[in-house]
């Protein structure tokens, strides 16, 4: 459905966006089309080949690729993160600061660092009161999100932090959950430290058409907000328009909940199950919060292209003992299954743990619910070739006597909506 909206509304929008956005759209429109690249898997029993189209691996709005990335991130962190409680700290920005962050993403990075250090400072002070001594080290995973549930441009941070610290020997020090006063004091410290960063930054205004689309996506949310809940919310602080929410946590033994929490932070902006095409050609979106709204294809495309994250910026960042090169990382993260390895000799270098990547067939099965390596005859398919260019893919289609010109796009492969709500 999103692809159909782009085919209808993109001609009206393409002249208003820079080159990197046009390239992202072109890759998205080729995503899932075997004419532009495919993996060939052949059954070992009946020798029947099957072509599986390559993906665009976009960072913007592609439902397939963003869901696959969220699923891979959730599975990896669910397996590797230590078995301690984890809490999510969500930092939202006021309306006046959002466009400045869009123009200068470095401000959001500085705000992220301030938040991480403030949380660790609070955790160390709590550990000292409980009797811990010596150097204590914390960890965390931060997710950048550039969107809201109503498809508005809303830069904010989701920081997943363990409720534990680790000594230099790798021993964990468990911590109690924070209270309302601690969350309020922590936000005040973050804003006090970040005030200098914002004072030194330049004023921001739209200088080109694409930035105008982003400013419109910031200032005019498509959906209508629901009235505030009369119930008092715990572990929520609001100061100077900034809000810090820290009431979402998972138990140390709730691995499925931890994976769901990480998928929520790494998810994409579009869930096709919330989109509906009306008889008049417009599209209705039903956000998680707010009421349903109706837009044309061009208006939907304008809003989606404005949600493209900034280039050369990581959307998932590891901090402290979770960082890739942290000295304590091998001691803190969950160990892989034991394997028979020869004991190291004094002259041999220390063994470095290699990250086990999830193969593409498993990701495809977990995302779309179909096993591409299972043949209807009962046999198993085996990958035999990779056609990475359009010329090679069309040559293989010609060998299989599938005319490339009359080949229709495959049916929509948007994944079923994951259980991302926390």
Quote the distance from N terminus to C terminus. Answer: 26 Å
Order of helices and strands: HHEEHEHHEEEEHHEEHEEEHEHHEH
Beta content: 15-25%
Structural class by SSE content? alpha+beta
Helicity, in percent? Answer: 25-40%
Multimeric status of the protein = single chain
Compute the average pLDDT.
85
The coarse silhouette is globular
**Number of contiguous helices:** 12
Radius of gyration: 24 Å
Strands of the biggest beta sheet: in what spatial order?
8-9-3-5-4-13
Largest sheet: 6 strands, antiparallel
Outline the low-pLDDT stretches: 336-342, 346-351, 406-414, 418-422
β-strand number: 14
What's the quick description here?
This protein is an alpha+beta fold and 422 residues long.
Helices and strands in order:
Blueprint: H1 2-13, H2 19-30, E1 38-43, E2 49-53, H3 63-80, E3 86-92, H4 95-103, H5 105-129, E4 139-147, E5 153-162, E6 164-166, E7 172-174, H6 180-200, H7 209-219, E8 236-239, E9 242-250, H8 255-266, E10 275-277, E11 283-285, E12 293-295, H9 297-305, E13 316-320, H10 329-332, H11 360-368, E14 381-387, H12 390-399
Antiparallel strand pairs: 1-2, 1-14, 3-5, 3-9, 4-5, 4-13, 6-7, 8-9, 10-11, 11-12
